[in-house]
Amino acid sequence: MKKIFSVIFISFILMLSACSSQKSGKPIEDFNYTDQDGKSFGLKDLKGKVWVSDFVFTNCTTVCPPMTMNMSELQKKVKEKGLDNVHFVSFSVDPEVDTPEVLKNYGESFGADFSRWHFLTGYSQEEIEDYAPKNFKTVVKKPRDDDQVIHGVSFYLFNKDGELIGEYPGDKEVPFKQIIKDIKAAL
Predict the structure, then answer these.
(1) What is the DSSP string of 47-92?
(2) Where in this chain does the record put each Thioredoxin domain (predicted)?
(3) Which residues make beta-bridge pairs with 150?
(4) Strand ranges across the sheet with 50-56
(5) In 10 A of CB 160, how many CB atoms?
(6) Distance set, CA 129 to CA 6, 138, 152 (Å)
């Protein structure tokens, strides 16, 4: 009976830890890409800042518009709370289509504050398909016969050292209060 109880207890603990939004604090690999203004932007520019990122593309017909609207809402809430030094990074998963100009127009349509929200491109499709799973544990894949890119729908929170410390749903039922709480803790 004790053995069964122990197995159930350990299973319960593992399930709880799997549901947690907190990550291990793993640093991501350095990157240096091109932002919506055509300027170089990379991990070095985020040093000492807390930041939230996601993966989107501008001609997405499904999850990207709600994700970008939710990121815009998070940007607004962060500003309302007076949380300075928080940045937002949206990596394009369709870099050949998403030029800096296209990304700028896309960001403007969602009210992006470009002083704190950076839309990135300037890498190959293969690079982003390799970078995302290695650093974010998420898939990015552009099918050969489709213009819609397969990608994850999470928001990722990074601390001032560039370590991934949280992952949250970004497309629906976004836990804004929890993200703000975790941002405050990271600041």
Answers:
(1) TT-EEEEEEE-TT-SSSHHHHHHHHHHHHHHHHHTT-TTEEEEEEE
(2) 22-187
(3) 141
(4) 22-27, 163-169, 154-158, 50-56, 86-92, 117-120
(5) 14
(6) 41, 9, 11
For the chain, domain boundaries: 2-186
Is 0.70 surpassed by the pTM of this model?
yes
Superfamily of domain 2-186: Glutaredoxin (3.40.30.10)
DSSP string, 119-186: EEB-S-HHHHHHHHHHHHS--EE--TT-SSPEE--EEEEE-TTSEEEEEEESSSS--HHHHHHHHHHH
Specify whether the CB–CB gap between 140 and 151 falls below 8 A: yes
CB atoms within 10 A of CB 82: 6
Render pLDDT for 133-158 as a digit per residue (tens, 0 to 9). Answer: 999 999 999 999 999 999 999 999 99
